[in-house]
Amino acid sequence: MDDYSPDNVGSIRQTHHEYFQNEDPSQGQSHPKRSIDISKWGKSDSFHGHDQRSQKKVTVKDRDKLKRMQKGNPDSMLPPLAQRSVDFVPKNHMKKKSKGKHGRTNQNEGEEIYGKTKQAHISMPKATNLCNASVKKHKSETAMASKTASVIDKDALADFIRKAKITQRECRLYTPKDTGDDCQCGRDKKWHDTKQPQKYDSGIWDMKTHTLETPCKSFGEIKFEGFGNETANRPYIRVDPKTNLECLWTVMTKHWKLHSPRLLISITGGAKRFNPTPEHQEIFKRVLMNAATTTDAWIITGGMATGVMKIVGEAVKDHILTKGTSDKKIVALGIATWGCVANRECLDGSYRGLWPATYRSADLESGYGPEVPLDHNHTHFILVDDGSIKKYGVEIELGAKLEKFITKQINTGVAELQSVDLPMVKIVVEGGVNTMKTVSESVAADIPVLVLQGSGRAADFISYGYKLSEEKDIKEKGFHEKLKKKAENIFEWEEQDKKEQIEDCVKQLEDVLVKKGLITVFNLNEADRKDIDTAILDALLKAKKSNSEAQLSLALAWNRSDIAREKIITNDKRKQWKKKEDFLYHAMFIALVQNKVDFVKLFVDCGVSFNKFLSIKTLWNLYACSLLNRSDSSAHLLRQLIMYIKQSWRAYLCCRQPDNFRPKTDLLKSVGKIIVHLLRDESMNVYSNKKFMVEDENSELKWLPGNHKKKNKAEEDTGDFEQPEKELFLWAILFNREDMARMLWKKSINHIAGALVACALLKRLASKADDNEELELKAKLLEHSEKYEDLATAVLGQCYRKDKQSAHQLVVRQLNNYGRTTLFTLAEANELMKFMGHTCCQTKLNLIWKGQMAANTPSLQILISIIFPILIPLIKFSSDQAQDEVEEQPKDKGNRKNMVSPKDEDQKAKASSRSKIHQDKHDKQWLYNIEKFTDETSHSVNLCCAFYYFYTAPITVFIINTISYLVFLAIFTYFVLTDLYPGKPSVLEYITWGWSVTLLIEEFRQVAARDQRSIKFKIHSWFSSIWNKFDLVMYLLFLVSVITRGALSEDQFTWARIIYSITLALCYLRFMQVFFVEKHIGPKVIIIKNMIVDLVFFMMIFTIFLLSFGVAYQANLYPNSEPNWYLLKSVVYMPFWQLYGELFLDNMEGKTQDDCIKNETLWRAQGGQGRCPADNALVPLLGAIYLVLTNILLINLLIAMFSYTFQKVQVQSENVWRFYRFSLVHEYYDRPFLCPPFIIFIHLYRLFRYVCHKLGCVSSKSCNEFRLELDNEEDCCLTLIEKAELEEYLSSTQRQELESVEKKVTTTHERLKEVIDDLDHIRKSIKLLSRQNEKVTAATLLRPVDVQTDVKNDTRGKMQMHQNEPESQVEEMLQILKQILRNQKRNIHTSHLEITDISLSTDA
Fold it and tell me: What is the rounded distance in angstroms from the CA atom of residue 934 to the CA atom of residue 950?
């Protein structure tokens, strides 16, 4: 740094003197005024408090003061631990992240910067070390702060600028121009006289020798006033062209808190002469902001309010106004020359900055000269100062270096193998000769350039040369001359050295065209059918043409799978990509984490194997990376569930907060516990084994191959999971990634089961989200859940229409991949009413309900047969066991007589569970007659079998148990009403006790027979039924009544009678479950149940009114009452019965009755009973108000609640009834055929068989119509049927979508685009043929001299005619066809809008 001039020492001394007078807000202390005698500043200690020339040191107090300021609050300078961007992170971030424990970065980095100083004198660290350390810490934490910018820490920014030695410049040596007295810096002599400069006679002004570096004091925020629209304050800073780029980067990222870009868009072009048409201007604004917002880009311009820079600012403003986007989410960085900024004096402040610096439109001159105001719509400004004024181009060098520096600081992608430098593109809009130089330098530096054709001058000149180079070779004759002629016409030239300037311009374009692969031309006239973001990506892909991995990384970062499929992973390149499978696996992992479904499909099509891709460690890493995404609400919900599950009871009871979430080795086991917690079934824990414990806890955003490379080929094909698609599907469901889950669901097997599991998980997650008041997440989860229930129902319906018997087997097939459960069990446990209400489920339930009897057997006939067993032979029976024999019989008879002989139980169980997949789909179940005596050759049902089939059918068991229960109620009622005395119980009471014990044992058996593994979830499943809750209360009351009956004395026996009577009332109410069998009465029972819930809420509200007015009654009618339990009864007694019409008017009016007591001593002796009411006029008024509120308001509220509940249930009453019917059918199918109390014998028999089975004496296999166990071959066949019907359903759905009107409009619009592209290709082909014809014509015209002249002319004319005629005709035809297509496109677009309006109005 050069020495400071003595003329500036005074101002510097004064500034530092003011600095020490200021109050330090961070310390909250006021510092006394102190002076520091600094006479001169040396070169090496310009910012030191110790002056080597004067040998005057700072006082001890001053030194202590500055030390306190240095150590003050160093944490305020540190960047907040912001959330890392998933798409883009700082370079080397992944490498540094893995160094710390658990993937954390070292929080102590950079303490040498912000720690305490140990120097005796006041000194500061060197700028380079400070910036390097600061950037190092910043990179290790995050590339940027949060995308939502926060308030700038003013003191931290000022301290950083001071410590980093960011400077600005001023001219210190007066160097006059050749003409005039002004200095070559642009200022007049008068200004220099005030600075007392030294004369300099060299005549050449240079920034290094003629300027003085001074501490930066022009920074802070600009407040624009009077510019038409109100904007937020804009951060700015004035810097030296030689400023350390790392320090400048720290200012932008740490202090300005700019979000991380995924692209740099540098716009160059016309500054003053750019006057586009309104149409082109609007198109440019739209496509620019579309590119910036879709790619999360930074826009870098010159920042002035003129030319293309002003239009960019207007584009930012229009986007904010129309889209409602915060301007803090858009970065428009203006890098301008300080000396060319109009009214820059208002931006020059103190060493603490200006907060804000007011920049008024009124202070500007009316006409812009060499100085131009800043554009108020830009969001941030860097003002480059070299000490001169009114000289453009000062910022070019620093801007170019800063752009290159930024591209090296940030990487695209999240894995090291896919990291490429931050992409950058330079957009050329109009421009002059200087723009040609800028483009030439950019292309030389391998920066892709996007030229907006139609914007004018330089952009059109480059576009012209680019298209000309496609038609002709650059070295071909005439090419250079055409460019010269075009340049002469398109630019304005000074007559002096005009030819040399044109040659230089053409030479620059030719240099650019040598690397024309870096040039992309975007026609503004075609912006309606091609987006600029696609053009930008095309330009970047051209720059990375030799690196296919970098191209794929860019396409993946921008989520442009269409471009990746069309230009990167094409069909002819698939074999090459298969050799790079490791890179594809890394890309696959990133696509999964970032939820890029189209890329996952592309990689699967390219040959990525899920078996090889998904290892246990990869799955662990996938969950870890997804859970660390702080912006995902589903991930936040799962983190809370994991912490809840892992929290111990001790910590819970002590109200200890759980630790912050961090992926640990048992993450997969925690995920399995979450699934169990949500589905309430221990058998669904798919990650319970120890092999799912991962040793390494460091999560990395890349594919982890696991142990695949160590396995042989056969094991590699199998992988760590039998069905990796299912594991990924569960992952996508838990994180509510709808499109990803749908794609993985299609790739997996057991689609109906997967859809039901997904529906159940999403419903339970929605319930958890509702508990956390995450209403938006809850709505999304419920919507997603309904889609999967619809999918499961639709696929089952497709299977049922194709093959009814296979569909029936699907709903009861045991699913080994989902905890050995069934579709019936999943639907019943998670209340999937729509699925359970499907015809397939109901017909299967009906078959099970009737047992082996014919499905159309009337219930009345069964009831009569129970009463009169002699009528059983009149019932027709069906049998699946004889189906194989039926297929062998001739099918010409309508009524078959086949014989089913009774076999041993194991054979019957095996026969009943045998799969019928390969049978003829038109075969039906046959009906069999009953014969008393049969042999092996006759075809009938044995009489014994008939009785066995009849009495073991669930409907028969239900009817018999209902009759038995009625008998139980009769006995119970009889002894309660007539034979309940103290002392020894009667015989009927003993019978009732025994009967109740058998019923209770049956309830215990139902709990033990539940499908869940653990006793906890068995009890939870049993308790989920409202009738089982009712049973629990009923049996507890019965037990209490029995205990009180024997424990209480004769005087207290009334309590036993009361409890007995309440228990009997509950037993009568329990009989309502019987009504579930009937289709019309069953829904009414459900309505009553829901209305009871409404009634409970109503009673809570009514209790408030009851107590409020009851207390008012009591206080005014019976003041100073005796405190006892009778007082509580008196408070609620009168208002409660007033609700039903008993008004108590005499009491309310204070009328005394003959038997009431007025003497206080007497009524106090009786506890307040029989007291006469007091006369109070307020009480009747209170009563009137109470009756209005209760009888009119609350009663009508209750009626409205009941009406709503009735309508809600009535609309779906049939589905509700069908759902609850399943539990009834399942209960009585599994129930022993003997009714209570004789059921105890069946329980003893089953207990005996269970003991024998444990001893190995008897096999435990039995027939279960609700659980069908198939061998591998049969299960595979059934899976193939399900897969085929899924494909059929998806294809039919797709056909329906294609037939919709809106889809047709969209398809036609896309076809029009393709037709226009084809026409452009035809035009290029015609032009190519024309050039070939020109060559042929030229060769034909060079005939030997002996050819006659007339023949020569005739041939030449014909050739030219044949050459020009097709081209002109085709050109005319193309124009007409394009016009027709545009009109048709406009009409289709109008129709599309009308259809949208109609659909919206229909929804409304």
Answer: 18
Of residues 193, 161, 188, the one with CA closest to residue 176 = 188
Instruction: Find tokens 């950083």 and name the residue.
Output: 160
Please compute the mean of the pLDDT values over residues 436-461 and round it to a whole number. 83
- Give the pLDDT of residue 63: 44
Cα–Cα distance for residue pair 1112/1131, rounded to 1 Å:
9
Given a contact cutoff of 8 angstroms between Cβ atoms, the answer to whether 211 and 161 are in contact is no
**Helix, strand, or coil (residue 399):** helix
- Average pLDDT of the chain to the nearest whole number: 75
In this model, does residue 129 exceed pLDDT 50? no
pLDDT at position 1068 is 93
Segment 341-395, tens digit of pLDDT: 888 888 888 888 888 888 888 888 766 667 889 888 898 999 998 888 888 778 8
Instruction: From 503, 703, 539, select the one nearest 622 (Cα to Cα).
Output: 703
Burial class of residue 1100 (count of CB atoms within 10 Å of its CB; 0-12, 13-18, 19+)? exposed
Q: What's the token pair of residue 630?
A: 């702080």
Residue written as tokens 């009563």? 1183
User: According to the model, what pLDDT value does residue 176 have?
Assistant: 80
Q: Do residues 86 and 414 make contact, with C-beta atoms less than 8 angstroms apart?
A: yes
Judged on CB neighbours under 10 Å (0-12, 13-18, 19+), 376 is buried
* CA atoms within 13 A of residue 803's CA, in its CB half-sphere: 19
pLDDT (0 to 100) of residue 73: 39
Torsion-angle region of 390 (φ positive above 0: left; ψ -120 to 50: alpha; else: beta): left
In order, the DSSP letters of 1339-1354 are HHHS--TTS-HHHHHH
Q: What separation, in Å, do the N-terminal and C-terminal C-alpha atoms of the chain show?
A: 72
Is residue 777 within 8 Å of residue 634, measured between CB atoms?
Answer: yes
Ramachandran angles phi, psi of 476, nearest 5°: -70, 150
The yes-or-no verdict on residue 763 having pLDDT over 90 is yes
Count of beta carbons in the 10 Å neighbourhood of residue 739: 13
Share of the chain above pLDDT 70, in %: 72
**Measured CA distances, 1358 to 1330, 1337, 1352 (Å):** 14, 10, 10
Predicted pLDDT of residue 594: 87
Instruction: Give residue-wise pLDDT tens across range 823-873.
Output: 999 998 888 999 999 999 999 999 999 888 888 888 888 999 998 988 888
Q: What is the CA radius of gyration of the chain?
A: 44
487-510 pLDDT, tens digit per residue, is 888 887 777 777 888 888 888 888
Tokens standing for 1040?
Answer: 């209490």
Is residue 536's pLDDT more than 90?
A: no
| CA-closest candidate to residue 428, choices 262, 538, 270, 287 | 270
SS3 per residue for 1023-1087: HCCHHHHHHHHHHHHHHHHHHHHHHCCCCCHHHHHHHHHHHHHHHHHHHHHHHHHCCCCHHHHHH
Exposure b/e, 424-446, CB count within 10 A at least 16 = b:
bbbbbbbbbbebbbbbbbbbeee
Helix (H, G, I), strand (E, B) or coil at 80: coil
Q: Which residue has the tokens 């979450």?
A: 674
297: three-class secondary structure by DSSP: strand
Token couple for 846:
């009906």
Tell me the HSE value of 447 on the side-chain side, using a 13 A CA sphere: 25
Rounded CA-CA distance 955/943 in Å is 19
Q: How far apart, in Å, are the Cα atoms of 537 and each of 6, 287, 292, 546, 1271?
A: 55, 13, 12, 15, 54
| More confidently predicted of 1376 and 1347 | 1376
The three-state secondary structure class of 391 is coil
What are all long-range contacts of 1124-1128, with beta carbons under 8 Å and residues at least 24 apart?
Answer: 1124/1167, 1124/1168, 1126/1167, 1126/1168, 1126/1169, 1127/1168
**Tell me, what's the pLDDT at 1103?**
92
Of the two residues 29 and 755, the one the predictor is more confident about is 755
